[in-house]
Predict the 3D structure of the following.
Amino acid sequence: MNKIELLAPAKDLEKAKIAIMYGADAVYVGGKFYSLRSRASNFSLEDLKELSQFAKRYGAKVFVTVNIVFHDDDYQGIREYLRYLDKIGIDAVIISSLALIPEVKKEAPHIECHISTQLSSLNSSAVRTLKEFGADRIVLGREASMAQIEQIAKKVSVPLEVFIHGGMCSNYSGRCVLSNRMTLRDANRGGCAHSCRWKYHLYDGDREISEKDCLLSMSSKDLRASAYVERMIRAGIASLKIEGRMKSEYYIGQVVKTYRKMIDEIYEKGSLSFDRLQYYDLELSKAENRPADDGFLSGDCDNTKHLYGVNGAGVTHDYVGFIHDFDPRRNIAFVEVKNVFARGDELEVFGPKIDNRRFIAEVMFDEDYEPVELANRPTQLLMVRMPFAAEKGDMIRKAAKR
């Protein structure tokens, strides 16, 4: 049995490289067209080519989303686009229109067709039918329970992909027109305004009945399926998918590394102890900005799995710096400031090869070698002395209190 794949999102070239460096077996990205995340930075044709070459050096794969709900006008240029993706060595396209399958097979014969979660594939009959159409992999709908996923996996031979982490949609597999109605941005062609996450006043006729500080939201909690990874592996799932093509490099690095270590430990030891699962859950929580839950995996969702009037966890400012280079002769890290930190703060470094090492920020200089007491200018490059070696691509956050 092949080792389960860890699939990570990325909204631009830098974040895709970080995902691969931090342990993703594959990344999925959107081009400038045909993608459901049109407001992400997304990839030019040259970016896709560079990413494909970078991924191959790490033995990783690249999947490109071509998953909008196509209208006639959207098909313009699709054949040329598929031929280009095939030429530069893209491994798969993620599609939601079955009409694209013959186009992919004809124009890009080396590329696999992965069926998007947008098709809400939630039973073995649907999965088998999609395979007959020519699909090479099916991304199951997020509305399936773990028991249903295990049942489907026993009955089909096509590889299955399952979401394990990230944002959840209030509608069936993302098929929603709230954004279309409220903002004239088509959610099914890349323009979702996330209207479900807004806060709403509730009225009975002209009389407002919502409390001032507790406005209504239709937003679901985020997904965190760490407790189900072991069962996914035993069920023979091909790929575990992280959601978040709009997320930061910090989210990508922290979440990918945590699941990478978790998966590797399960394969090495056969299972995870309760204490180790708690450790990994704590690590995942460091990158969350909303409360998380196991979604539909434990069964149908009830009101405890939605936010409604809850404000959520909020965005933290613990992530303070990205290391662009390290001088081992002087033990100096060249750090891009992401959030405020001060001389004397206890900080924590993590990266592909380093696990949560702490130090006190005692010596900091700017590019003119002037001492810095307070790092409070985003994107400023500082030189920070560290008592241990770090590498380009490592990240710094404020250390949690012991």
Residues 5-173+221-295 form a domain with the TIM Barrel fold (CATH 3.20.20.70). The chain has ten helices and 21 strands. Residues 34 and 74 are 7 Å apart (CA to CA).
